[in-house]
Design goal:
Elements lengths: L9 E7 L10 H15 L6 E8 L1 H12 L7 E5 L15 E9 H11 L3 H16 L8 H17 L8
Parallel strand pairs: 1-2, 2-4
Antiparallel strand pairs: 3-4
Helix pairs in contact: 1-4, 1-5, 3-4, 4-5
Length: about 170
């Protein structure tokens, strides 16, 4: 019997809901690449769909208050649609629906300035971080899980050519 090789396809829907900060050309492509690179690192072989929404600080603060009961802005929110590796499937495409990522562009710019790198790297980092949450990782408890998640983030950024130079 001949085995059919299935080609992974990843659809990343990106909406820019904020108007305050003009992102550099290529940022949308970088977000897509960050999503795909994260899935490859994790050995995710199914087709997938992810929604990424770019917002301002007041929008993400409202979402954080509404969904997490935290009345403060944050850099990124993740809304996974799956649990324990089980995801709903889009009946039209057959793709696994992983969930939603919401990035505060204002927060990303401030953090990029604070860490001394460009907004592109920060948006890529936040996208990878959130993708790992969509895939079931959680750093909130700290310890080993936090360390593993951090290592995976850097592996993906390295694959994208965005690694932090270590002296």
């Amino acid at each position: 019997m001949k085995e059919v090789l299935k080609k992974m396809s990843v659809k990343v829907n990106i909406k820019d809901e904020q108007k305050k900060i003009k992102l550099p050309t290529g940022t949308r492509l970088l977000i897509r690449k960050a999503c795909i690179a994260t899935l490859k690192l994790e050995g995710f072989e199914d087709s997938a769909e992810v929604n990424v929404t770019l917002v301002n600080d007041s929008m993400i603060r409202e979402m954080n208050r509404q969904f997490r009961n935290i009345d403060a802005s944050t850099d990124v929110l993740s809304f996974p649609l799956g649990e324990n590796g089980q995801y709903d499937t889009n009946p039209e495409t057959g793709a696994k629906m992983l969930g939603d990522i919401v990035v505060s562009v204002e927060h990303a710019l401030a953090q990029a300035d604070m860490y001394g790198h460009g907004i592109e790297r920060e948006v890529a980092f936040l996208t990878v971080h959130s993708m790992l949450h969509l895939l079931g990782y959680d750093h909130e408890k700290g310890g080993l899980e936090k360390t593993i998640m951090r290592e995976k983030e850097e592996q993906v950024l390295d694959a994208l050519g965005l690694a932090i130079n270590k002296l």
